[in-house]
Specification:
This protein is mainly β. It has no helices and 11 strands. The strands form 2 sheets. Strands 2, 4, 5, 6, 9, 10 and 11 form a 7-stranded mixed beta sheet that branches. Strands 1-3-8-7 form a 4-stranded antiparallel beta sheet, with no helix packed on it. The mean pLDDT is 94.
Length: 117
């Protein structure tokens, strides 16, 4: 069973920065890793992800957030800068793992990011 363990959330003032980390356990082959977020009363949305074809960002975070991966550690990071109150949400790590039957999705437990003065 693959587990995704997230860290790095918290409370930050507008304009501040946070770095989220997500490590996937086990000896696995990962096709893609990324971050989604869900604000109260809203649907979960893609923030950023990386796969072998490239990197994708939501328009709302382009130029402010940077996603990176450390494949040796099966870890993905999300560096968030110039944070805004509208970035407040639970951030979920997501991974697409390649197994003997194809592709399988995994989710982390979520980490709260609150941007407030």
């Amino acid at each position: 069973q693959v587990q995704l363990v997230e860290s790095g959330g918290g409370l930050v003032q507008p304009g501040g920065s946070l770095r989220l980390s997500c490590a996937a356990s086990g000896t696995i082959l990962i096709n893609a890793m990324g971050w989604y977020r869900q604000a109260p009363g809203k649907q979960r949305e893609l923030v950023a992800d990386m796969n072998y074809h490239g990197t994708n960002y939501a328009d709302s975070v382009k130029g402010r957030f940077t996603i990176s991966r450390e494949d040796v550690k099966n870890t993905v990071y999300l560096q968030m800068t110039s944070l805004k109150p509208e970035d407040t949400a639970v951030y979920y790590c997501h991974a697409v793992v390649i197994n003997t039957t194809g592709y399988e999705d995994y989710w982390g437990q979520g980490t709260q990011v609150t941007v407030s003065s």
